[in-house]
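Let's practice the habit of predicting before peeking. Look at the sequence and jot down your guess about where helices and strands might fall. Then scroll down.
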Amino acid sequence: MIRFTQRFTASALVLLIVGVSSAHAQPNTSAIKTSTLTLEANAKAKVSNDEMVVTLAAERDGNDLAALNQGVLQALNAAIDEAKKAKGVQAKMGSLYTGQNWTSQGRPSGWKVRGEVMLTSQNLPELGRLAGELSQKLMLAGIGFRLSDATRIATEKRLLNEAAAAFREKAKDASSALGFGSFVIRDVQLSNSNQGYARPQPMQRMRAEASMASAPAVPTESGESEVMVQFSGSIELK
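Done guessing? Here is the structure:
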């Protein structure tokens, strides 16, 4: 009986040691307090548009398609030549459309050819003057205003630091409000947007203005664009 008791005690001791070792090997997950939170923050600014875009169009109707194409192209090329004389104005050929005209009975009735030229400039008064002159021969198909690339890039660069600071501040406030002591940024995405200002003009009004004897300058009130830089991502609260 004494030998049996000794063997039992030794076995129990081995089991006790193994149990203690297993308990130390397992992490105490209840002591680790973490959570993940998704956040976003942005910075915005309104900036005066500094670039003007004018679209001019020429249309011809008739039965001689070759003559119609030639007439439209001559009118557009003449407008481009005039634009080259203006200070700070860039001109390029736009779209060119050829379509069939139809009678009310559904029969073909000649052709319609339409072409466009686009004028762009940061010299708004000069482009307004030029567009007013060209509207005597061409239709003003559209007028719009936007930020130049240089202004947009400079504004986004300034807003980048503001948006980053806002994201960190929001993460800090959320961490404190939820009872956590700190946070770590896990992933983050950067996006930006530019909501420009444009003022399209009705085609009928443009034709009426073009028929006037004088050549008034096109209005150049450019308005503003809103630029926004946004950070979105997730943080780990600790």
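How did you do? The radius of gyration is 36 Å.
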